[in-house]
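Ticket 4471: requesting a sanity check on a complex prediction with adenosine-5'-triphosphate. Repro inputs:
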Amino acid sequence: MPEMIGIFGGTFDPVHFGHLRPAVEVREALQLDCLRLVPCGVPAHRAPPLASPEQRLAMLRAAVQGVRGLRVDSREIARRGPCYSVETLESLREAHPHAALVLVIGMDAFATLDSWHRWRELPGLAHLVVAHRPGWRDEGLFRHRHLGPLLRDACCEDVAALRETRAGRIFFQPVTQLDISSTRIRALLAAGKDVSFLLPARVIEVIQQQRIYT
Ligand code: ATP
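Returned structure tokens:
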């Protein structure tokens, strides 16, 4: 079977169970050889993160420690300037020319895909797997000016179809809905509130030791 590598990008400021549980479920559902969590350095589409790149890496590493099939990929952190998924995929494609690549994104991120840098090139580099996120529905997407034609062309119903090519298909993966966001966690921490059970205890330890959000 050809190797299949998943990439799940984000700011991870901080990483939480809303990222981690879908990551585990997508990896298992797609039988990915591994799913790489890729924290961005300077995000292209949003305000800079509160935690430094090194702190976000430390939190991610603590989160995936001992978890089968999940690993942290620091290639975007190492890059200077804004991070673009298309460039991350290009560098992975170069390193893994024969593997199927799968870009995993939340529904909220997919809904704005046509604003991403060189977005039309993404399907040529990887499959897109869209994980459901609370509050986001997919019906309107099929009528979207840019995403509609893309979906009609590339959307597949059967996960097995992703193994047939190295890139180019879109698959919607239902995942456990956890209404957790980094924004909310940062707000709770800033207010001195308890964030237990929203993110792994080991990540909370890193936050406390390094006084990241206080
Ligand atoms: P913030 O609140 O700072 O905007 P966030 O919680 O949305 O952060 P990001 O690091 O920006 O987290 O998200 C990275 C990826 O994870 C995106 O594709 C996003 O859609 C997805 N994601 C984040 N939280 C969830 C969640 N609770 N359920 C499903 N997907 C999620």
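Notes from triage: The pocket of adenosine-5'-triphosphate is lined by residues 10-13, 18-19, 22, 105-106, 108-109, 131, 133, 178, 180-183 (CB under 6 Å). Leaving this open until the requester confirms.
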